[in-house]
């Protein structure tokens, strides 16, 4: 299955050794983004992947493309337009000090200013079996919103699988407000086959209430299946984080039209607090593309999400061998 | 309230990535010192701060001044004399391996050779409401001792608040012995309004016994209030560290003439084992300068002390927003 | 003389050791800008300096302010608005390979979106004797253009000295074209006392022809004096670069209303190809503020411009002692 | 024209800042090799390129592939065999101190132990128009020699262009001696269309004498044309270095069956003394693949070779725009 | 007691800050090996130590010797032969992500190709009281096997103490198989006085069964004493790792001909997962050379093993003072 | 010939990439000093060398010893006393910007506070054939002066060769003045066999006039021979630097009792402006210890001095092979 994604390439600038911005003049530059992260991980799993996006036609755009290629992603659908790459600075947290992300201008990025007319969706879809679209596109600009809709519609019409990630960030939507965003998501969902999201996305953004007639333990399951039926969704997946004392655990869930499975929780020990969600999504997509059972998929994806937290940067670079290792030999912490 | 400090600027040289000195030729250079640390933190809280000290009139002195300015501290009372900056090397510990500090010559530093005649105390005090004096000055050299006394006396006479930190280190006082040092501290205390110290400073250094007629639980409180009454101290504050299994907790205490409050203990997770005391002191001084309640002050200061341990280097660079965050949303470990 | 500047703070991101962007993930972060550069240099010469600008109210804005303070510039007139800092990447050239600058979005920066209403010009000018305005403000956005005009007009009305730098970059003005820009410059110049520029600024941008009746050797001088008379300019200054074989030389010129002096050319050996112009300007402003002779000023400023090329980054950090050293003991290449 | 290469991927380990191995524990890791260098450069010129080689099937092999992809080279013909990558340490010279290269085991590398049976030449050639073979293959091991012959023979039979680079290093051939190597080269040459070499390769290795009946100035030309006729070579190219005082100049030459052109010499200013030859070769191949005139080709290739010396590492990452810039605007040393 | 070792010097190349190979071009270079590690630690304890090995006669060999000298080991018995140093890349694990070691060619290293004739054992032994031989020598090559046997035999004949470390790695012995390796170990053991190993070495490699007539709790002790009697071994020592929840503990054991002691388990907190075994061995050898009691030795060695995990790299650089500190003042985590 | 030196070990702290102290927090730490430099170079030439000095008994002292061992120098005569190592910061110059050295406290260093009673000269001299004493010892403190005299006297009495280096720095002698220093040098010289110095040392410090009856060209030679006769000096050597345009040349001279030779001047291209003198001295001492001719010695030493300038840091790490290379194949700038 040829897997592709439509989404932004961002620059991430990170001070070394948990330093804060004031403390250093040294920064590490990575190119990242939900699409980059998921595709890179799938490429490390052996899948053929391709990214559809736009970059500025300058030295930075070329460097971004080189980085994407290194990650194992085909760069032939990366076009040039605009003159800016959105960026963020990540001051890495430690212990009780949270990781602090500071965004620089995203809306004027090459991706942000590119609408449907800036892409050749037909040619792109001809080479794609499944396309991942990140919900950020619906929040970013009028152009990205429009491009996402056209792409999803075309893909759906062609019988390609559409995978959509809610990725709803209130901070990116202060102008339009939730009501406006609800409309956008409702417009997108009918084209989608696989969806990543959370209970809150359904209740707070889509305004779908928990059923009062279902007992508590089953409310979430009922809600999700109601949602999936409404929009004809094939898979719905996401992660839950739980704290217990000063430990944190990650578990993933996965629905098909009839079943609901949840993985055994795994302790999170993070080197980097950003990016586990994309690792989880890559695991689910791998299982889907290879028709694994729900249980197999969710266990693999959760293990992968936990591994993603042990890797510097947003991009999960795990291989199947590494994921299998921590599933099968979790106590072997030195491999020679 | 304009807050100032009198104290030494030192160089701290730290190998990267927990390496020991033998293992690397790379060092990180920071300028630090009790005064620098407290003032920098207060400046990050929005206070107007100024440091009174002396540096060598050379490239290093200029670099030290630039660093102090960057931290948000006014450098106009930093003079030039002598030709040396005291320094220390910090080999960062990990797990059971302790952090190892190795001092290089401090007594011949520009600060160490500067006596009262090297400073214009009157002009300095005219622009100051509260001055912090570190107890190290009493141990370092005859010149720093004398300067500290003259400054405290003048400040007191002018009705300025004097804040004094015991900071008693037996290793710096091997020549003179405790009896001599007791005299110096007794000479200083009558000028002081706020004091940072510990039970041991009162019992071992000042030789004030715990009352045998008070029950154990109240002995510390009785002792401190006896001390405060004796020297007419307005506030007495300090921190206590406790271990429980392999976890460590920090809690702060704070006295006014009638009351005694203690903060809820907070777990310490340290990136750097040096500097939390100065973070605590900065928090107490902020509360004092803004007339917070004792409880508010001690909780904020303890949270700040814990945060200071999560920051590389001695200098606590926390903002009010960061401290409030871990007090109010301790489980949110990623802020976008 | 209290010297201030109105201008943008930018981020400069530079790969280490002459690497190109594709070759590294390590970048060095500096905060720079014409105003920052000139003021920092003047502060290193002992002048009191202050920068008027706006930054985003976030971690990056705070880090930028800390950096500016470190350079010796007062940060009290730096306000907060917008949410972006313009940035550029500098791939350092070597030998025949040119230094390559790639700009990221400047127009949407906090400075770019701030108009006259975002500043308190009156209070600012009350503490200022001379204000430097960079011509980039006329090119950047409608807001910066307007702010520059209001500031210049007010300063002029209050009898403050206005120093203006053409800094005309065709690449920033592709939308409006030269005719539009000519109008803006003509609107600004009547408020100005000191101007930095080149012959080409006068002939190509302002459309002032060289006189055909003057012999070649004197055409430039006649042109400048004609320009100075027209706009009542007190000083006009700039630099000329010349190549001779594979050597490059810098020389500065300086006009007052009656005289024209040129410095002896100095060989340029560059560690960094960006920033010498600001070093030259700082030298001229120092001489002006201390009423040096034209010759003294131009020689000092040229030496300083040459030194600026030997320093990493745009910001000239030279002291008077360093400039005097290369003027007086050019062969002593090791100072102990 | 789809261009491919057959050759080794090596690790290059370089101390930073001109340090020698004893002076540092920090090394920079690059993946390099004649094929990598030429293809990467061609990819930066916009060509479609692919590398045929073998790597160990482990973390290092994967890292090497990622690096090759980043450089713009397709990795689909990179197979796995063996368990070792040849490496070399480059202590960068400065002034009179030469760059010192120290090789680690090459003969047991994955490439060194791979013979013809380890590659699928037919499938590879089906996707290739021109294949570059480095003469090192003839020296390295029996297996690489055999693989090179089979590949060249098959390519020639299929009418694909074969480009061969003498790259004769006596130090790699101490065991077999020159007579043995002469045989190998003579066996290879009949399959070749383009050849890179020097006068010494023809006279000393192939034992072809300079003609005594031709006058000195034309001896080289006569020799090369005699060589080209003998082996039916379409193009012969190489570079000459000349010193003049303490300056060094590079010039390239290029022959077709009838003509001989030489580029104007360009001064070499090296950041890195390794890799200019591959930059020259990439320029010649670009010209060939796009049917440029001999003069155009040789001028572009020489400029590119000179640029290659200004880039850290062996891999020339120049773009057409950069080469054109130094050909057309050699004095503009700062591009914004 | 003059302690020496016979063994390989390897290069260890480690990415910084827990990065994986794909993520960085920066590597840290260390020279390491079982003999290097143990001797360096003993030298830091104040012992006179010397290493017998071979290196290539080139820049790398010289750098390796310099590094060994820095560690406190005499380099006079380090000879030159061959042209390669074996190396490995260590991708440092974090949390559940294991440390991943990737070896490059070891069998063709200078050490691997050196047999008995390449060393002057007699002269070496004349200056040695105890020689440590690592079991890797038996696995590596025919030459190293032979050299180890000759050395052990000669040392034994001269009445020198021979210390042997099983260090059996199945991955290095895939060609020969266990039966062959058993023979080699059986040939070596009669020459040995001190042996480091595990229960599994005795049962699986030497094929010595646990006694069924002894109750479980004493089976290990009986087995080891049976082994020691058979081969006339004076001391047998090793370590056991235990997990409890997510904590890991290290404990050491030590046998003489009659007694068996085990240290109190100590929690492992690792900065580096490689090298604790060598720290343990160094502690045991120190105790042996100074005739400490078994209990003293095993407690010191276990503490040292735990400390070794808190140090970057394989080489334990601990001093007696540091080991004593964590044994006596485990809660003091900052020493000034 | 066993060569030893008596002198200080200093710390050198250097910002990377030509940055100034204000511009960076990263420093490189090297241990250096005239004795360290000369002995290290001789060790790299294959000589047996040993350093006599004192260091503090702490982590820094241990790190300094480790560094000295790495350089190839025996550390058995390095004792412990005092608690401080003198240090200096070197801001590396570029082009016209001079290298700027800033010293930190030297007089209170472990070396500075150690007098004759802190060393065991007799045991040391029993293992030494030639001892180098740096003139800095005469300037530093009363203790170092005394120690130098006692050592020189004892060495001379035992028939050991004494090599003395004027190394007169007015900046270190502002307190005592030239007259006092003259006395000290006159007291030392009778014990000396080899002396490094300059014409100015003889004329300005020792107050020996140039002869007016000798013609100009021979004045220097006559002066040196007069000086050598007076103090019974066997060899006198030094270097001369000359500028010609923007090029700099180094040449060495060498006298025995009857002859005077001067090397051919060699161009200086410096990576580091500190340390060439020690490289020259090492070359002369090598020639002396191996009874080379004056011409051989002076040519080798001058080439070595020039090479020393191409190496980062003060310590010349050149081998005989490297020196011979630039003497014999100066145009080969890449060695594989």
Structure in words:
The structure is a homohexamer of 336-residue chains. Chain A is α/β, with parallel strands linked by helices. Chain A has one domain (3-8, 33-59, 115-328): 3-Layer(aba) Sandwich (UDP-N-acetylmuramoyl-L-alanine:D-glutamate ligase). The first copy, chain A, has eleven helices and 15 strands. In chain A, strands 1, 4, 5, 8, 9, 10, 11, 12, 13 and 14 form a ten-stranded mixed sheet that branches. In chain A, strand 11 (235-244) and strand 12 (247-255) form a beta hairpin. In chain A, helix 10 packs across helix 11 (320-328). Chain A is globular, with a radius of gyration of 19 Å. In chain A, 57% of the residues are buried. Chains in contact: A-B, A-C, A-D, A-E, A-F, B-C, B-D, B-E, B-F, C-D, C-E, C-F, D-E, D-F, E-F. The interface between A and C is medium-sized, with 30 and 30 residues. Chains A, B, C, D, E, F: InterPro entries: Carb_kinase_PfkB-like, PfkB_dom, Ribokinase-like. Chains A, B, C, D, E, F: This is Carbohydrate kinase. Chains A, B, C, D, E, F: Belongs to the carbohydrate kinase PfkB family. Chains A, B, C, D, E, F: GO terms for molecular function: kinase activity. Chains A, B, C, D, E, F: Pfam families: PfkB.
